[in-house]
Amino acid sequence: MLIIKSVDDALQLSHAYGVQIVELGHALVLFIFSVIVGLIDSTLDDWGLHPTFIQSGIFGGGDHQDMDVDSKVSHGDKRNEHREQLRKANAFTAMEILGKLTENKKAMILLRLVHLNMPEKFNGLLQRLQFMEANKLVSSNLKSASQLLVRLSANIQRVLGFQNQVNKRQLIGALIDIGSCSSTSCSNFGAHRAACWVPFDIYMETAMDGKQLPATSAIDILTELTKTLQVINRASWQETFQALWIAALRLVQRERDPLEGPFPHLDPRLCVLLSITPLAIVRVVEDAGEMPLSSLQGGSGSGNTGAAFEQGIDGRGQASRRQGLISSLRILGQFSGLLSPPSSVVISANNAAAKAANFISNFKNGSDSFGGSIRGDTHGKAGGTMLHLIVEACIARKLIDTSAYFWPGYVSAPPITSLSDSSLGQGSPWSTFMEGAQLVGPLKNALIATPASSLVEIEKLYHIAINGSEEERTAAAKILCGASFSRGWNIQEHVVHFVVKLLSPPVPPNFTGPGNHYVEYMSMLHSVLFGMSSIDNVHILSLHGVIPEVAASLMPLCEAFGSLVPTSSLKSSTCDDISSYTVFSCAFLFLLRLWKFYRPPHEHCITARGGYTGSELTLEYLLILHNSRIAVQNSSAMDKPSKVSNPPETSSQAVYIDSFPKLRAWYCQNKACIASTLSGLSSGNPVHQVANKILNMIYWRITKGGAISSNPSTLSGSSISGSPASAGEDAYQRPVLPAWEVLEATPFVMEAIVTACAHGRLSSRDLTTGLRDLVDFLPASLAAIISYFSAEITRGIWKPVAMNGTDWPSPAANLLSIESEVKEIIAAAGVTVPSGSSGAGAPVMLPLPVAALVSLTITFKLEKSLEYIHGVAGPALENCAAGCTWNSMPIIGALWAQKVRRWHDFIVVSCSRSAFKQDQGAVAQLLRSCFTSFLGSPHVAASPIGVGGLLGWNISARGARPHMAPGFLYLRVCRMIQNNQFVNNVILGLVVDTARESATKWAHANSPRLKSSQASLASAAARAKEVATLGASLLCIAGGVPLVQLLYQETIPTWLLSSREGENRDVGPMSCILQGYSMAYMLILSGSFIWGVGATSSAGSFSRWATIVRVHTDFLAGALEGNISLGCDPATWKAYVSCFVGLVVNFAPAWIREVNQVTLKKLAKGLRGWHECELALALLERGGPEAMGSVAELALASD
């Protein structure tokens, strides 16, 4: 330390660079850099050039002192001439020394350390070189030294691009180098496999699972996934964007002929293709710091310091991403099989094609007036494809311009010249609306059915919904939630924003109270809530990532309307069906759909590893997400202007559940009811009194003969069940209570009537009638009913009841058919499961709570206006079925199939999922089938492979039975699996086994020449990478962060520690090496899919990710030191560690800075022991400023 301090004091390095010098190597790095910069500054000074950016200090300049020879009086012209020649010679000598010094490999390593860890200092060096380059024409000295300057600049360019890599002449280095996507596996996006891009397909198809409503925006996820795969696959942006578009097109084609049923259909898939994907590409382009589109035509803009050097190295200048997008779009026309539009969007595609044709026609005719869109089915012969819709979506986001219309083959039909500009506008209801027409009659219906084309139209609608009359507000809200919401792809993010904003209307200017101002907007809120509640629309909200904002907006509505006493004064003046009960019920059930409210609290607990035991959300978590977004928005609101991909946010205030006492009270009660049995109430308790009133209402209706009356607050003659409603004498039997009081008493009502039924005091039919009457009275009470039944099923204290058609409905008519079709679907996916049927003569049984719940749900009407009911009842019913000790889903499915015959195929598909929830063996079979279907079976030559084999081309064809490919079935069941940690071991085993088989085939090739060929090795390594990519994708989808954390901290360490003598018998070294390679690749990919390859994660996830990486690298370092005894083959261990480090160095260098410095040194030492010195250098080089000394010492010690 004394020597280091003396060196530092003499050279003033700590003072000049503002860092603490603690290692001799660190001092050496800064000294070499100081010498280089000092030589440049001295040369510039000798040539009379004085850049203004050079500051005083070690870089020369301000504190420069003349030498003694310069300060003395001149004694003659000859001496002055000699001195000038010496000065000139010194300058050229310095330039030559700089050229030789910067050519040295070790000096390049030291300079690169400054570039990586002190970019602002390295930019000073680049500024000097740019200054010298800029002054070559005005300085004779620089002109004469131009060759030396070119040499120096070229050396610095090599420093910027220099990277220590594994030795490609060794086997491990060759494997890592093979890791890039080959053209054969990535360019063919058709029926053949494209393994390196399959994560796109898997994520998109997973996002279509109607049972899940992720709170994270699909735009954000797809943005990070795109950047990650581009890096991992070492692909061009054209290849990357092409793969992204192909995956989105396949997503749409998979649902061309959808099954009928309550699940997301085509609209969410089109949303992914035409809204989410373009918005994700906008983010990718913006992240590159690209210039506006208009500036691309006039040349590149001025970049930051050293941009010329950077662009010369990596070939990814500012315009490369946008040009890659354009190239990918032009190539899409080759995939005609994917571009055929589904029947429901043929008109939109034809309109887009006609718009381009007319644009070209107007352009050729010299007219520039055409800029609008074409509406209506007037262009049936325009030949529109999905490509035309994609191009329009990109033009709307300013990713490309209308020059795309002139691409060869884009407009296949002749221009449509018979249409004038005026005729184009006449068919547009939006033009009529913008001219001031009233939102009534046919115009309102046309606007609901026709998507808006501009943000101006949506903004005008929003202002009408807030400031118009009650009729205008209602109409505007319905229009906003219509086709503009579901199919206004080019402005969909803005429509979503304004629709969510309508849930929080401002206080009217003339509102003086009393009460809540939301009542003034009752009709409008009713329209918005019912419009947003459709299954497709809720899923679109989730894709755009606004679920936390929706939850925060619904909470005050629930608090306000649930506290009102339903009276005639609290009804809409425009519609008798709208009351405080209906608005509250829709808002409340909508809120509950956003998380699994019926799950026991322990399923949301955080485990010892820091992750959730399940993948379900909670209300608290949604609010945390919302509030964190608000904090980020408020802190960065003034940093940069709003962009097209980021519409204005809905709220600027944090929301807390404590601000809503009624909602909080119910929330706590619901969790308590699910977690434990109900406690008795004294007769004087207010809740007991309310429960008695409800029970009196139920029993009064039963004794009147079972006719179900309507909601007393509406007296409208309509009900959820569709039973005839009566008014008059029945109305007074309905208690007039705030909705919160009814919900608070419902669990005790349930306890009373279910107990009475179990003891024979109440018949099963009367129980169903009573429950149905309760839901008709207050639809929101369905939530309390579901929570009660879910809890009771979990406790398992109720005896099964016979579904015999006498006491309870019978599924016998089609149960055997349902079970047979379910077995066929599962068998077609390559899975064999034991039959769940008890035989033809055995009684069909269900637990009493399940029987009661399914009996209640099959009484509900199947109307679009009641999707808010079915959206809660369907998933809850499936959850209750899963709580049975036997597979009861086929029984429930058979009952529903009898009620809704057109849902038969959907019900069969849903029932097929239930076989996997508690059967780990079936899940293992399904996973093996996923790998076989994707990679191809060696026993079936004609078996489909690639994405088509994994996910299928469609779910079912017209008139055929539904068919689910193994991967599609896995994506629908993987997040339902209980105790899914075993999935890690199954997937890792499949990855390792496949890699071993590939290596065995390579090693046993008949030709000795083939055995040693690079092509054969590349084939084996490529297959290992394919299987690792598939395994990482399936693992991340199944469990997300918890499973990936388990993989890093337990699964792979356990595999490496365990002895597998039986498995590795007769296995050659190549098999062992490829096993290690495939495990390392799977590990890196899994982490990359969750956290990305950069350092852009949020603070919380960043901290957790860093901890996980540290734990794993600490394990590796300990094993390298010999402190841990390994059970795997030494070749596997060496391959795993080398490939892990090499892949991190190449693809995720940001991870390395989170590893402890001591651990890095241990890893580097172990790699040097394996003669992987270059890899050890590359690892330390990326370890941050603290590792600079170690890198310098290792570089100097290396040959």
From TrEMBL:
The chain crosses the membrane at residues 21-40. Coiled coil: none annotated. PANTHER family: OS07G0681500 PROTEIN. Keywords: Membrane, Transmembrane, Transmembrane helix. GO terms for biological process: regulation of phenylpropanoid metabolic process. This is Mediator of RNA polymerase II transcription subunit 33A. It comes from the Eukaryota. One of its GO terms (cellular component) is mediator complex. It comes from Macleaya cordata (Five-seeded plume-poppy).
